[in-house]
């Protein structure tokens, strides 16, 4: 029987010790709720199981992806797998006994330090589930810390539906209303926001790069509007973009959320590593886990989970969040990837995310029947493309060439979205061939 | 490396014979520092950021560690050696269920067929959708539920999702005014936090003298305000709630729903199903029941199962089979999403492989062995173990500070149990050996408990001495928070 190590003799000895002849006698379950059926699942050898599961996985199409839209792939160096898969990391538990988990605690401390450097904010936690749940937690934090009442959070009109839906579940309990402010020309409409914001606004959210892949040109103005209305200003971004961009704290961000899985995580059907950082004065209201440095009794530096009086296992219904299991192993992977890149490598990777999409757009724009990018401005990883032919037809055509691109509804039009990173940049020629082969579209 | 550097630093305690005989001791470092420098202390560089972007969009400089791959590798290798995992030895943390994770599931997770973007069309991700569908259906069978969503990225996220589904259901039935969630005092802290997060008032239910739900207290608590009772069965004392049928009737008669916290489900596989006990909603902790490595705190995955009345409220997307093809769809009254995509895909694929490997007989053997191991260990240790009979875990009562006991157990080379919780037991040592520990390892654990029990309580405070770090002043770390290397500068 797999992974159960008792010999029959040992099993008998143990049964004797507890005074039963069959383990079934140990089940204190009343007959009416006993289960006497079976699940109908056949057991398989390890070899058979691998073959079966891998056979299912192979049923997905073999495509080169230019998809983006909230899940981005960069090349992950081999060393990330080799180190993070060491059993002492992979099979360890939450660090409730810090004296035997210094290694993981230090790695998480280093991850937090990376996020502090990237955001410019004083405090970072050691992970959220993904960018959408991190945004949900940011709104709940704003609700707790804001000096005056206010129960509206303002988000850009182009916030992806998937993120907004998560946010609406998070805001349902405390009765916070999610409302949109307008965008124009592919970026925040600052005047439109000024008309929407008022004393009832607890938080304003803006992302850079935004949902159209555009780097927001004037988030300082958004921060000023939030400040003038005593609302928190939350910026959405990611761990690669922030290596290049001005740190959000420098233009007034109170909270930064987003995705750190862009480091260390290949495309795995949307797994995430939520990033969360905030001003130091919100320290005791931060959701999730925090690792702190301290000393042991020998006077050496040591790390420990800290400020646990915020957490659900102590504060129960008064906890800052319900988070128990988080994304610690993915934070380890992100930290290793960042360490491998170093500051130059990280900046270069980010810059490649600017030049790659810009070059692709320039080439697509030169094709008959395509205009790219739809919006002026500097793009990061992705951009929208106007097509003379129906965008869905272009997607189908690309698919036959082994390439996955997608459409988005934008300003009442169906448009093509194209995402270029170091992971697929060497296939941009194929994408261009496929688009050109569409024969001018219409 | 010289012989001198192999010698122990002054003050490192020896066993009586001068040799450490603990069977699964973590690596220790005797080069004087006893800690690994931070990456930034090894080599840091500040680089000027140059970009094709305009200056007003970009930062001026970036300061980060700057090491070549060999030094990065040595840093993390050393950190790993300063860390204890289930591959090093048992982690009998009650209610956390840390069991051995088979190696092959990592290979399954590394298969290129997992490298699929979530925004592909359904046609282009049939492998992913088929696995999601089959796992959805399998979990429904195991739980005795009618429908399952795989989306929640952790157990607590599953609780929150289940509560949102219950709330949507009550609202659809014109019962949106129900404002209370009842939770037994022995419940996991996440139950309280998740209910509060969803906007409910939490009503705490006391335990009776045999450690189970006090039925008369439930009768008094349940009423027209009750939206939900959250319960784990067996409970966190390892005790089966034998009155479950009566409990379900009370809650249902009051118009409330019954929620099952699946953290302890590994002790029921093949023996009982939450749906058959009257539970309307449940979550699965895939990383506990079906094993996936817990990665130092996550990722996990917390699918929820519901009965047919609640199925239309599940998050979107769900997966269904139509003529041999698989497609995503939105349930009629869906609450929307609780994760941007589908949570932690790799945990799902590992859990699926684990279930397929075991089959019915293997899954039943899991629960039988988990329960046998818990009862055997409870029998073997010197500390008092109140209540019983036990399922997957038991809670012993230490004669001294349970936290001290834990630290002293570290010096015995084993990971200690959960301490000081549940508070129903004085100085609790909440112990769950799981099914993957051999008799020899259980005997080691018992010996470690007994060695500590036989130690003068005054000596316990000086422990641990055999670990990477000595005891850490957690109160000081919380009083003076230093949460990044910037704070140490």
Automatic annotation (TrEMBL), chain B:
InterPro entries reported for this sequence: Aminotrans_V_dom, GDC-P_C, GDC_P, PyrdxlP-dep_Trfase, PyrdxlP-dep_Trfase_major, PyrdxlP-dep_Trfase_small
Location of region: Disordered: 1-54
GO biological process: glycine decarboxylation via glycine cleavage system
Entry keywords, A to Z: Oxidoreductase, Pyridoxal phosphate
Annotated catalysed reactions: N(6)-[(R)-lipoyl]-L-lysyl-[glycine-cleavage complex H protein] + glycine + H(+) = N(6)-[(R)-S(8)-aminomethyldihydrolipoyl]-L-lysyl-[glycine-cleavage complex H protein] + CO2
Basic and acidic residues: compositionally biased ranges: 1-11
Domain Aminotransferase class V span(s) in chain numbering: 166-295
Domain Glycine dehydrogenase C-terminal, first and last residues per copy: 367-453
GO molecular function: glycine binding; glycine dehydrogenase (decarboxylating) activity; pyridoxal phosphate binding
Enzyme class name: oxidoreductase
Any one GO cellular component localisation term in the record: glycine cleavage complex
Alphabetized Pfam families for the sequence: Aminotran_5 (PF00266), GcvP2_C (PF21478)
E.C. numbers: 1.4.4.2
Designated name of the protein: glycine dehydrogenase (aminomethyl-transferring)
Record organism: Haloplanus rallus
């Amino acid at each position: 029987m797999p992974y159960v190590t008792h010999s029959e003799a040992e099993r008998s000895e143990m049964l004797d010790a507890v005074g039963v002849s069959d383990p079934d006698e140990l089940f204190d379950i009343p007959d009416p709720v006993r289960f006497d059926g079976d699940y109908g699942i056949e057991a398989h050898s390890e070899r058979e199981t691998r073959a079966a599961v891998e056979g299912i996985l192979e049923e997905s199409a073999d495509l080169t992806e230019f998809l983006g839209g909230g899940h981005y792939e960069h090349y992950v160096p081999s060393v990330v797998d080799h180190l993070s898969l060491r059993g002492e990391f992979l099979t360890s538990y939450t660090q409730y006994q810090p004296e035997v988990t210094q290694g993981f605690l230090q790695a998480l401390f280093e991850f937090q330090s990376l996020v502090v450097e990237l955001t410019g904010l004083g405090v970072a936690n050691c992970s959220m589930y993904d960018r959408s749940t991190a945004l949900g937690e940011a709104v709940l934090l704003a609700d707790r810390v804001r000096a005056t009442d206010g129960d509206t959070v303002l988000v850009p009109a182009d916030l992806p539906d998937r993120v907004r839906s998560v946010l609406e579940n998070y805001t349902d309990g405390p009765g916070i209303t999610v409302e949109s402010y307008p965008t124009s020309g592919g970026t925040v409409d600052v005047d439109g926001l000024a008309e929407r914001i008022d004393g009832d606004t607890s938080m304003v959210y803006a992302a850079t790069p935004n949902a159209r892949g555009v780097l927001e040109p004037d988030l300082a103005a958004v921060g000023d509007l939030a400040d003038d209305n005593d609302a928190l200003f939350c910026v959405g971004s990611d761990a690669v973009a922030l290596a290049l961009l001005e740190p959000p704290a420098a233009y007034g961000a109170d909270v930064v959320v987003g995705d750190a899985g862009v480091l260390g995580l290949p495309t795995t059907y949307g797994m995430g590593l939520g990033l969360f950082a905030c001003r130091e004065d919100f320290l005791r209201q931060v959701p999730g886990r925090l690792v702190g440095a301290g000393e042991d009794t020998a006077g050496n530096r040591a790390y420990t989970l800290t400020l646990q009086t915020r957490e659900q296992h102590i504060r129960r219904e008064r906890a800052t969040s319900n988070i128990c299991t988080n994304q610690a192993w993915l934070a380890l992977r992100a930290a290793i990837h960042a360490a491998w890149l170093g500051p130059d490598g990280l900046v270069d990777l980010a810059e490649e995310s600017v030049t790659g999409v810009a070059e692709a757009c320039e080439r697509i724009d030169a094709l008959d029947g395509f205009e790219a990018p739809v919006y002026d401005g500097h793009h990061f990883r992705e951009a929208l493309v106007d097509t003379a032919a129906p965008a869905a037809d272009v997607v189908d055509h690309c698919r036959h060439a082994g390439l996955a691109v997608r459409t988005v509804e934008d300003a009442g039009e169906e448009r093509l979205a194209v995402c270029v990173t170091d992971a697929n940049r060497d296939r941009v020629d194929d994408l261009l061939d496929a688009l050109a082969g569409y024969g001018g579209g219409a | 490396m010289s012989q001198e550097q192999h010698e122990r630093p002054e003050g490192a305690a020896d066993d009586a014979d001068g040799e450490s005989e603990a069977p699964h001791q973590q690596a220790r470092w005797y080069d004087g520092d006893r800690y690994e420098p931070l990456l930034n202390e090894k080599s840091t560089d500040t680089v000027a950021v140059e970009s094709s972007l305009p200056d007003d969009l970009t930062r001026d400089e970036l300061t980060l560690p700057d090491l070549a791959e060999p030094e990065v590798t040595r840093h993390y290798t050393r950190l790993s050696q300063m860390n204890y995992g289930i591959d090093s030895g048992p982690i009998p943390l009650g209610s956390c269920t840390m069991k051995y994770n088979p190696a092959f599931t990592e290979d399954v997770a590394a298969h290129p067929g997992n490298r699929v973007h979530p925004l592909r069309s359904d046609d282009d991700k049939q492998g992913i959708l088929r696995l999601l569908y089959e796992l959805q259906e399998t979990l429904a069978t195991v739980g005795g539920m009618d429908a399952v969503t795989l989306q929640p990225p952790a157990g607590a996220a599953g609780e929150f999702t289940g509560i949102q589904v219950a709330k949507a259901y009550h609202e659809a039935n014109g019962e949106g005014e129900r404002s209370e969630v009842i939770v037994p005092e022995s419940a996991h802290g996440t139950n309280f936090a998740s209910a509060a997060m969803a906007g409910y008032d939490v009503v705490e239910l006391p335990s009776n003298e045999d450690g189970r739900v006090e039925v008369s207290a439930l009768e008094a608590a349940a009423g027209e305000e009750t939206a939900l009772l959250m319960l784990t069965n067996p409970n966190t004392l390892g005790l089966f709630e034998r009155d479950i049928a009566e409990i379900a009737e009370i809650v249902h008669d009051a118009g409330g729903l019954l929620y099952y916290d699946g953290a302890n489900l590994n002790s029921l596989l093949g023996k009982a199903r939450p749906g058959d006990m009257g539970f309307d909603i449940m979550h699965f902790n895939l990383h506990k029941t079906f094993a996936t490595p817990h990665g130092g705190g996550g990722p996990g995955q917390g699918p929820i199962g519901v009965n047919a009345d609640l199925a239309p409220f599940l998050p979107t997307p769900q997966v269904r089979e139509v003529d041999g093809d698989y497609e995503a769809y939105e349930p009629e009254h869906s609450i929307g999403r609780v994760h941007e995509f589908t949570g932690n895909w790799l945990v799902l694929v590992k859990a699926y492989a684990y279930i397929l490997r075991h089959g019915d007989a293997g899954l039943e053997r899991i629960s039988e062995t988990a329960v046998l191991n818990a009862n055997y260990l409870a029998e073997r240790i010197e500390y008092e173990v109140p209540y019983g009979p036990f399922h997957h875990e038991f809670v012993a009562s230490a004669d001294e500070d349970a936290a001290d006991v834990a630290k002293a157990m570290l010096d015995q080379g084993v990971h200690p149990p959960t301490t000081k919780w549940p508070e129903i037991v004085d100085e609790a040592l909440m112990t769950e050996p799981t099914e993957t520990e051999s008799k020899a390892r259980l005997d080691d654990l018992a010996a470690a408990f007994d060695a500590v029990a036989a130690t003068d309580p005054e000596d316990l405070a000086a422990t641990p001495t055999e670990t990477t770090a000595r005891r850490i002043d957690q109160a000081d770390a919380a009083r003076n928070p230093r949460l990044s290397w910037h704070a140490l500068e």
